[in-house]
Design goal:
Distance between the termini: 22 Å
Largest sheet: 6 strands, mixed
CATH topology: Nucleotidyltransferase, domain 5
Number of domains: 1
Strand content: 25-35%
CATH class: Alpha Beta
CATH architecture: 2-Layer Sandwich
Radius of gyration: 16 Å
Number of strands: 6
Shape: globular
Structural class: alpha/beta
Helix content: 25-40%
Order of helices and strands: EEEHHHEHEHHHE
CATH superfamily: Ribonuclease H-like superfamily/Ribonuclease H
Length: 190
Amino acid sequence: MELIIFDLETTGLSPYSEEIIQIAAVKMKSGRILEEESFSTFVNPGRRISSFITNYTGISNDHVRHAPSPMEALAAFSQFAGQSMLIAHNGKRFDLPFIRESCARHGLGTREVGFVDSMAFSRKLWGGRGGHGLDAVMNRLQLRANGQRRHDARGDVAILAEAVKRMWSALTPDFSACPVDCGSGVLAAV
């Protein structure tokens, strides 16, 4: 099974009024993280990035000044992902709504793809104890950032890919079937 582990950074929390400023992803196949098959782009939101978001993500207006538009970035990400199953942490509540709303706002059609929120792995492994955010998962798995910046999509994807690999393996050693309920997500239609 081919998976696309991905993360977004945005100008704020609302998919209805905020924009994507970074997309990063890496492929995983049969439980192996394929670091050489990765995707990363800044996205020009067409507005200034607040100092709060720059401090939180490390992404500045200079980073996005010459970056592709949301339409171009979403189309490129969709091409990279192909028909693979998507995985994002808290993606059901955050990443997928941003993709869906950004596509609608910028006139891009969408297509359905398989999707699983990696928080489902955490919930299945640890139940209701101690939260299921990425920091809690990192602590439980004793994962370190190892120089990766948290809240930069590239750093979070590297951390999340290792977390997904470990959680999936703990649930089932077989990477041919998803060990939690898988649903569907959306990508730009290209």
